[in-house]
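Quick sanity check, Vesicle transport protein, Got1/SFT2-like:
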Amino acid sequence: LFFLDRGFLAMGNLLFLTGVYLLIGWQRAKALFFQKGRLLPSLAFFGGIVLIMCRWVLVGLIIEGLGFISLFGKFAGVLFLIMSRLPIIGPVFRLPIFQKAQMPFQKKRQEQMV
Protein backbone atom coordinates (compact mmCIF):
# COMPACT_ATOMS: atom_id res chain seq x y z
CA LEU A 1 0.00 0.00 0.00
CA PHE A 2 2.74 2.45 0.95
CA PHE A 3 5.41 0.98 -1.35
CA LEU A 4 5.38 3.93 -3.75
CA ASP A 5 4.57 6.63 -1.21
CA ARG A 6 6.72 9.65 -2.00
CA GLY A 7 7.01 10.78 1.62
CA PHE A 8 8.17 7.43 2.95
CA LEU A 9 10.68 6.98 0.12
CA ALA A 10 12.07 10.48 0.68
CA MET A 11 12.36 9.84 4.42
CA GLY A 12 14.08 6.50 3.80
CA ASN A 13 16.55 8.11 1.39
CA LEU A 14 17.33 10.86 3.87
CA LEU A 15 17.84 8.38 6.71
CA PHE A 16 20.00 6.12 4.51
CA LEU A 17 22.28 8.98 3.47
CA THR A 18 22.48 10.25 7.05
CA GLY A 19 23.40 6.76 8.23
CA VAL A 20 26.13 6.41 5.61
CA TYR A 21 27.67 9.75 6.55
CA LEU A 22 27.47 9.02 10.29
CA LEU A 23 28.79 5.48 9.93
CA ILE A 24 31.84 6.05 7.75
CA GLY A 25 32.43 9.78 8.15
CA TRP A 26 32.19 12.77 5.86
CA GLN A 27 35.46 12.29 3.93
CA ARG A 28 34.99 8.58 3.23
CA ALA A 29 31.36 9.06 2.24
CA LYS A 30 32.36 11.86 -0.10
CA ALA A 31 35.01 9.59 -1.60
CA LEU A 32 32.47 6.76 -1.90
CA PHE A 33 29.96 8.82 -3.84
CA PHE A 34 32.20 11.16 -5.82
CA GLN A 35 35.16 9.06 -7.00
CA LYS A 36 35.96 9.41 -10.67
CA GLY A 37 34.78 5.89 -11.59
CA ARG A 38 31.58 6.18 -9.56
CA LEU A 39 30.22 9.45 -10.88
CA LEU A 40 27.65 7.86 -13.20
CA PRO A 41 26.20 5.50 -10.55
CA SER A 42 26.17 8.37 -8.05
CA LEU A 43 24.38 10.57 -10.56
CA ALA A 44 21.80 7.82 -11.11
CA PHE A 45 21.34 7.33 -7.36
CA PHE A 46 20.94 11.02 -6.53
CA GLY A 47 18.96 11.65 -9.73
CA GLY A 48 16.52 8.95 -8.63
CA ILE A 49 16.12 10.72 -5.30
CA VAL A 50 15.40 13.99 -7.10
CA LEU A 51 12.86 12.29 -9.37
CA ILE A 52 11.09 10.84 -6.33
CA MET A 53 10.90 14.33 -4.84
CA CYS A 54 9.46 15.63 -8.13
CA ARG A 55 6.61 13.06 -7.98
CA TRP A 56 8.07 10.69 -10.59
CA VAL A 57 8.11 7.93 -8.00
CA LEU A 58 8.27 4.78 -10.13
CA VAL A 59 10.86 6.11 -12.58
CA GLY A 60 12.89 7.59 -9.72
CA LEU A 61 12.77 4.34 -7.78
CA ILE A 62 14.02 2.35 -10.77
CA ILE A 63 16.85 4.79 -11.55
CA GLU A 64 17.80 5.05 -7.88
CA GLY A 65 17.83 1.26 -7.58
CA LEU A 66 20.14 0.90 -10.58
CA GLY A 67 22.48 3.50 -9.12
CA PHE A 68 22.36 1.78 -5.73
CA ILE A 69 23.27 -1.59 -7.24
CA SER A 70 26.11 -0.01 -9.22
CA LEU A 71 27.45 1.77 -6.15
CA PHE A 72 27.05 -0.92 -3.50
CA GLY A 73 26.99 -4.16 -5.51
CA LYS A 74 30.56 -5.01 -4.50
CA PHE A 75 29.46 -5.24 -0.86
CA ALA A 76 26.97 -8.04 -1.58
CA GLY A 77 29.52 -10.79 -0.98
CA VAL A 78 30.45 -9.34 2.40
CA LEU A 79 26.77 -8.97 3.24
CA PHE A 80 26.12 -12.65 2.42
CA LEU A 81 29.05 -13.65 4.62
CA ILE A 82 27.79 -11.58 7.56
CA MET A 83 24.23 -12.87 7.19
CA SER A 84 25.39 -16.49 7.10
CA ARG A 85 27.15 -16.05 10.45
CA LEU A 86 24.16 -14.61 12.31
CA PRO A 87 22.60 -16.93 14.90
CA ILE A 88 18.95 -17.18 13.81
CA ILE A 89 19.00 -16.57 10.06
CA GLY A 90 22.51 -17.92 9.48
CA PRO A 91 21.35 -21.49 8.76
CA VAL A 92 18.90 -20.15 6.18
CA PHE A 93 21.71 -18.33 4.36
CA ARG A 94 23.79 -21.51 4.38
CA LEU A 95 21.14 -23.37 2.34
CA PRO A 96 22.24 -24.49 -1.16
CA ILE A 97 20.06 -21.92 -2.93
CA PHE A 98 21.82 -19.07 -1.15
CA GLN A 99 25.21 -20.70 -1.69
CA LYS A 100 24.54 -20.63 -5.45
CA ALA A 101 23.57 -16.97 -5.22
CA GLN A 102 26.86 -16.19 -3.46
CA MET A 103 29.11 -17.81 -6.07
CA PRO A 104 29.44 -14.83 -8.45
CA PHE A 105 30.34 -12.52 -5.56
CA GLN A 106 32.90 -14.97 -4.17
CA LYS A 107 34.58 -15.28 -7.58
CA LYS A 108 34.87 -11.50 -7.87
CA ARG A 109 36.38 -11.26 -4.38
CA GLN A 110 38.91 -14.00 -5.14
CA GLU A 111 39.92 -12.27 -8.38
CA GLN A 112 40.41 -8.99 -6.53
CA MET A 113 42.59 -10.67 -3.89
CA VAL A 114 44.97 -12.18 -6.46
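Posting the structure with no commentary besides this: The mean pLDDT is 86.
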